[in-house]
């Protein structure tokens, strides 16, 4: 008896099969959110002093190019509570007006005065031009806020924080009380850094924050944490952010206290940041990507 002949498919049909089914699945990304981590905002493109702080400052004109592109292309500017509710815990459904939108988070660390002098006017300008309010996340150290006795402080003060919050541009969150490396502290010092920051930020904004969303989330100073730090952070905050130049793959993130952020300095052009933003599109078919971790 002759054995049955095995039909070999033509190469053209095999290639077509790969293009239609296999290759698209390879290209499908795990659900992601780009979280950009900025610091100060400078007026000039090149700082006068090439210090580490100057290196981390981002030029205002370039930031305007980036934000304007994101507005025109209908991005949803996420807050820390948005990330927590809609992407991490999924405790709330994404509102109808945001479904299918691309999304991004813009965060600014340390509370430099230029966030008030250079960023807030930019956000107001773009709101008037496009009739859209851009939300940005500020991770603040209340221990370094300028006060009446501050002389030529490089940091903003409580009244300036309140102005941006009242106008609806700021999502104000904690960065520890004094920007100390939390992994190097004793337990009492650690508790003081975490709890004092929350108390002081809420005291500054109490009448503007009836739902107590201020200081509900934390960014680790220097991105530094360990098991002890994490165990205490969970007592006072809903989530915590790193600064590790990695991407938030929220479909795979099991620990809400290790949310990654992408580092931004003046070496990254608006085009590069736009490319990063464009590479993370909303996932339409959730079930298809649930097990891709």
Structural write-up:
The chain has a single domain, classed as Glycoside hydrolase/deacetylase (TIM Barrel). The chain is 38% helix and 13% strand. It contains ten helices and ten strands. Strands 1, 4, 5, 6, 7 and 10 form a six-stranded parallel beta sheet that branches. The chain has a two-stranded parallel sheet with strand order 2-3. α3 packs parallel to α9. The longest helix is centred in the last third of the chain and has 19 residues. It is globular.
Outline of the structure:
With 293 residues, the chain is α/β, with parallel strands linked by helices. 38% of the residues lie in helices and 13% in strands. The protein has one domain: TIM Barrel (Alpha-Beta Barrel).
What's the layout of helices and strands?
Blueprint: H1 11-27, E1 35-38, E2 41-42, H2 52-56, E3 58-59, H3 60-72, E4 75-77, H4 80-88, E5 102-109, H5 114-130, E6 136-140, H6 158-166, E7 170-174, H7 187-205, E8 217-219, H8 227-236, E9 239-241, E10 262-263, H9 270-278, H10 286-289
Parallel strand pairs: 1-5, 1-10, 2-3, 4-5, 5-6, 6-7, 8-9
Helix pairs in contact: 3-5, 3-9, 7-8
What is the structural class? alpha/beta
**Amount of beta strand:** 5-15%
How far from one another are the termini? Answer: 49 Å
Radius of gyration: 22 Å
**Element pattern in H and E:** HEEHEHEHEHEHEHEHEEHH
Count of folded domains:
1
Determine the CATH topology. TIM Barrel
Tertiary shape: globular
Low-confidence spans: 17-28, 48-52, 285-290
Strand tally is 10
Question: In CATH's first tier, which class applies?
Answer: Alpha Beta
